[in-house]
Amino acid sequence: MKDLRSLNLEEMEELLKDLGEPSFRAKQLFQWVHNKGIGSLEEISNFSKSLIEKLGQVVSLTPLTVATRQVSKDGTVKYLLSLEDKSYIECVLMSYQGTKSKNRNTLCISSQVGCAMGCGFCATGKGGFQRNLTAGEILDQVYAVTRLEKWNNEDFKIGNIVYMGMGEPLINFDNVIKSINILNHPLGQNIGIRRITVSTCGIVPKIRELALYELDIVLAISLHAPTDELRSEIMPINDKYPLKQLKEACIYYIENTNRRITFEYALIEGFNDKIKLAYKLAEFLRGMKCHVNLIPVNKVGEDGFNRPTKARIESFHKELVKLGIEASIREEKGVDIDAACGQLRGKMLK
Ligand code: SAH
Ligand code: SF4
After folding, report:
1. Strand, helix or coil at 263?
2. Which CATH class name applies to 2-60?
3. Nearest bound ligand to CA 124?
4. Between the chain's N and C termini, which has fewer beta carbons within 10 Å?
5. 235-277 per-position pLDDT tens digit
C-alpha cells in the first residue's frame, strides 16, 4: 500500500483519477495531508464515507508518534519520534527572538535513521546507519510537531526548516528533494524556499546534481577543516571526495544557482582552531560566494573533542573577517538536553 504522506500533488491526482474522482479532490486531499497534517483518513471531513473507505484500501496513513518531548532552559525543544517500524529519530525546534510579525520557529529535521558517514565528532555517526526516511517520514516531523504545539498555541507555525538532524540528506537525495518541494508548495506548509537549508558533509556528485535543480534553498557544507590531512582525520568522506573536488563542486553550484554557500566549521580545541588554519580556510574559500558559520564543537560522550576558549574562538573569527571572509559564531541551542548540532542519537535510552 502506498504511503499517503509521501505523495505529491501529481501523484494524488493520479490516485484519485484511478478511483474515478474529479481532480479538485486531489487538491483537497493534498491540503488535508500536507497543510493540515492529519493523523488519520477519518479526519477528512469534506469527503464522503465511501470515498474515505475507497482511499483506505489503496493508501495508508500512519503518523509518527512523539515518544518524548524535552525542553531546554533556553527554550529549545527536542522530540524523539517513533516510526512505524519502531525505530526512532529526533528533531529539534528552535525559536529565535524576532519581531512578532516574523515567524522565527525553526525545525531541524532528520533525513535518515542514523548515518553511515562516520564523522568522529558526531553522535549520530557513532550510532551507525539503519535506513533512509521516506519523503512522508521527513515531512511528518513537521506535521507531528505542529500538531502537538498547536495544543498550546493555535497560531503555531514552522517558518524555517533545516535538514541538519540525523543523517546525510544528499544520500537520501530523491526523498529529500521531494519533501522540499512539498514543504514549499502553496497548498502545503508554504514554507519559503529560501527558508529551507540542506546541510551536507560533501557528497560531491550530489552537490553537482542539486545545482541543476536551481532550487533557491540554502546549501550548507560541513567543512570543519581546511586541509585534506586534517579533514580526513575526522571525516571519512574526505577520502572519497577530497577538498579539491569539493571546491570544484561548490564553485559549480554557486555558478549554476547564483546562491552563496554556507560553510560550517566546528571549532575543536587544539585541532582546527590555530590561527594559521584561519589562513588556510580563507585560502580554500577564496573566489567563492560564501558565509562561514563557526560552531564551538559540542561534546559527544568522551570523544576527546573539546571547545576552544571563548577568546580563541573570537580571535579565529576576527582573523577570518580580516581576511575578507564573511563569518559568524553560531549561537548554540539546547546543549543541556543533547539537542545541539551533532548530539542527536535517536535512542529511547542513553
Ligand atoms: N549530515 C549532514 C547534516 C546533519 S549534521 C552534515 O553533516 O552536514 C548537522 C551539522 O552539525 C553538521 O554541520 C555537522 O558537521 C555538525 N556537527 C556534528 N557533530 C557536531 C558536534 N559534535 N559539534 C558541533 N557540530 C557538529
Ligand atoms: Fe552524518 Fe552529518 Fe553526523 Fe557526519 S556530521 S556523521 S554526515 S550526520
Report:
1. strand
2. mainly alpha
3. 2
4. C
5. 999 999 999 999 999 999 999 999 999 999 999 999 999 999 9
